[in-house]
C-alpha cells in the first residue's frame, strides 16, 4: 500500500526487509553474519536539555536538543551450535566478544535499497535459546558508539 511523502509530495512504497545483510569486521575483513532472521539496525534517541528559566514566558517550559544517542543494533539469528565455540566463525566470534572490552566495526547493507550503514560498537548482550523442539537461536545486541554513517552500497 503506497503512502504519501509530504516532503516532496511524491507517493512512496514501503520496502521489504528481506535481503538485508549484517557484517562484522573480523581482523581486517568484513564477514557476513549468516542466519540473521530479524534486524533492528539502530535505536536513535536524543536527550532534551531543559532551558527553562525565570525569564521563560507564560510559565511554559523551554527546551533544546542535546546529544544524539545512537542506541543499539539488535538482531536474532539462527545459531550453528557446532561453531559457537569457534571464535574465528561469525557466531562464535560474536559470543566471544562478551569476554572482551573491545569494539568492532559493523556494516548493515539494505541491498534492496542500495543503502549502507556503518558504525562501531561492542556486543552488549548475547542470549542463546535452544528449545527441545525448534531451531537454536541467539538474540544479540550491539551498543553503538559514535556516529552512524550512511552511504550508497558501492557497485562492483
Task: Kindly describe this structure.
With 156 residues, this protein is mainly β. It has a 7-stranded antiparallel β-sheet, covered by helices on one side. Strands 1-2 form a two-stranded antiparallel sheet. A two-stranded antiparallel ribbon has the order 6-7. A hairpin with a 4-residue loop joins β1 and β2. The longest helix has 7 residues. It starts with a strand and ends with a strand. The model has no long low-confidence stretch (mean pLDDT 90).
What is the secondary structure topology, with strand pairs?
Elements: E1 3-5, E2 10-12, E3 20-26, E4 29-32, E5 36-40, E6 45-50, E7 63-69, E8 72-78, H1 90-96, E9 104-110, E10 115-129, E11 137-152
Antiparallel strand pairs: 1-2, 3-4, 3-9, 5-8, 6-7, 8-11, 9-10, 10-11
Please tag this protein with its features:
globular, mainly beta, single chain
Summarize the structure.
This protein has one helix spanning 90-96; strands at 3-5, 10-12, 20-26, 29-32, 36-40, 45-50, 63-69, 72-78, 104-110, 115-129, 137-152. The mean pLDDT is 90. Helices cover 4% and strands 51% of the residues.
Number of helices: 1
Strand content: over 45%
The average pLDDT value, as a whole number, equals 90
The radius of gyration computed from the alpha-carbon positions, rounded to a whole number of angstroms, is 20 Å
Query: What is the H/E string?
Result: EEEEEEEEHEEE
Structural class: mainly beta
In total, how many beta strands?
Answer: 11
Instruction: Give the strand order, joined by hyphens, for the main sheet.
Output: 4-3-9-10-11-8-5
Specify the biggest β-sheet: 7 strands, antiparallel
- Structural shape: globular
Query: What's the helical proportion of residues?
Result: under 10%
From the N-terminal CA to the C-terminal CA, the straight-line distance is 33 Å
Spans with pLDDT under 50 lasting ≥5 residues? none
